[in-house]
Design a protein that fits this description.
Strand content: 15-25%
Number of strands: 21
Order of helices and strands: HEEEEEEEEEHEHHHHEEHEEEEEEEEHE
């Protein structure tokens, strides 16, 4: 690849490549900002936060103030672990899970799910996996199953299904048996990881906002720094060749201040417009039917579809592979209009239209940015594990509105904000083939008086 920035490159060329670079690097930066924030706290001080190489659990569902991850789910309790494989592999262990659904998706730093142990794949028996970073060539005990990680840092976003507050204690007992052990300590008394605070980490601004507000100088310098230690995919060669033309390479730091003026100007424009292009693409990212965007292709593992990878990182960092979960997102109501908190809606399933999930399904309410919305009954999601009231013919009607619909309908009520756009998202865990191949689509949501 070229060894230096071509002096003849124009500002417009730098701008175009800069937009490509912005979109390409967005998930890598999102992942690392999230890693730095969520590992910069002592164990037990904040649910889900703590040093790397250990699990840190959510013991109850997030509240309305949760801002660390966009579109958190309210069906499972999270068990987060950031693995640092720089020095040695880590052994990830899970207990006998009985009949309880769980999954432990492992994401590389480009946000791809490269392994997903759990109920669907490996089953619910007690298990031990050794997760190995790039370039490690040591010996692994025979009793450990090997998983190779593409990058030296890995995010495990464990999920264990629960059935309400009365189930919290039972889930916690299982969560406490999820462990991470350095390979060198395997078979020995485990040593708790040491917390080393990092004062440079912004612990007040949610990771999403940290990413989208970075200056061009910070964004591209940070990206080059991360790329040096997190290998791109083998199929990224063409993109990397393009990026090298503006000085973005794995083998040398990127010094924005020393880049030619036209490159600086182009990249400064690219940061703003790259984000704008991502936002503009959201409505057409996947097929839309009945007002639902059905993201069932290239989810969780994105290949070279960099735009989709970036958009998912922006709107739902940590998305699963579709075989584990699909996330129909409502874009409009039955009349093609965006849903608003000022209106009342119903979602009606006939008996034969109920979501085809082998594990379970839910419908969750978010605001326009993908965050929970406070409501008087503290209900952020509703689904088949709730005490829903079905109609006499087996059909189901859900009420989506701000005001309580009354005692007879409250069991089927998903509260919405009083005003503004609604971010309604459905989840199907272990979806059946009909949900993956397009034969099943959720019915349209209708506005009612």
């Amino acid at each position: 690849m070229p060894s230096m920035v071509a002096s003849e490159i124009t500002e417009d060329e730098a701008y175009q490549i800069g937009i490509e670079a912005y979109i390409y690097f967005y998930p890598l930066i999102s992942m690392d900002v999230t890693r730095r924030v969520t590992t910069n706290a002592p164990t037990g001080v904040r649910d889900g936060f703590g040093p790397p190489n250990a699990f840190h659990h959510m013991r109850s569902f997030p509240d309305a103030g949760f801002r660390e991850v966009v579109r958190p789910n309210f069906d499972t309790l999270y068990s987060n672990a950031w693995l640092d494989l720089t020095n040695e592999p880590m052994v990830v262990s899970t207990p006998e899970m009985g009949e309880r659904y769980f999954l432990l998706p492992m994401l590389d730093m480009w946000s791809n799910v490269f392994a997903s142990p759990g109920t669907r794949t490996s089953g619910n028996a007690r298990a031990n996996w050794v997760v190995v970073g790039p370039g490690w060539n040591g010996t692994i005990p025979q009793e450990l199953a090997r998983i190779d990680a593409p990058t030296p840092n890995v995010w495990i976003i464990g999920r264990t299904v629960y059935s309400g507050p009365s189930d919290y204690e039972a889930v916690a007992k299982l969560q406490d048996q999820f462990t991470v052990t350095p390979l060198s300590q395997w078979g020995k008394t485990p040593v708790e990881p040491t917390f080393v605070p990092d004062a440079s980490v912004d612990m007040k601004t949610p990771p999403l906002y940290q990413g989208i507000t970075m200056s061009a100088e910070r964004y591209f310098s940070y990206a080059a720094e991360l790329m040096a230690t997190n290998p791109p995919q083998a199929t990224d060669w063409s993109t990397l060749a393009r990026l090298s033309r503006i000085g973005l390479r794995r083998d040398i730091p990127f010094d924005f201040a020393k880049a030619p003026p036209q490159v600086q100007k182009g990249l400064t424009r690219a940061v703003k417009d790259g984000l704008a292009q991502m936002k503009a693409k959201v409505p057409t990212l996947a097929r839309i039917q009945n007002g639902w965007q059905m993201n069932t292709d290239t989810m969780g593992v994105y290949g070279n579809y960099y735009m989709k990878r970036a958009i998912v990182a922006m709107g739902g960092l940590g998305a699963n592979q579709p075989e584990d979960a699909v996330y129909p997102m409502c874009t409009t109501d039955a009349n093609g209009r965006p849903m608003k908190g000022e209106n009342n809606y119903v979602l009606e399933f006939s008996k034969d239209e109920l979501p085809p999930a082998q594990a379970f399904w839910s419908l969750t309410m978010y605001d326009a940015e993908g965050f929970p919305v406070a409501n008087p009954i503290n209900r952020f999601a509703i689904g088949d594990r709730d005490a829903l009231k079905y109609n006499a013919d087996g059909s189901l009607t859900l009420y989506i509105q701000h005001a309580n619909p009354g005692p007879a309908k409250e069991s089927n009520w998903l509260p919405s904000p009083e005003k503004g756009p609604l971010g309604v998202t459905m989840r199907l865990y272990m979806p059946r083939a009909t949900a993956l191949d397009g034969r099943w689509i959720p019915p349209a949501i209708r506005q009612v008086e």
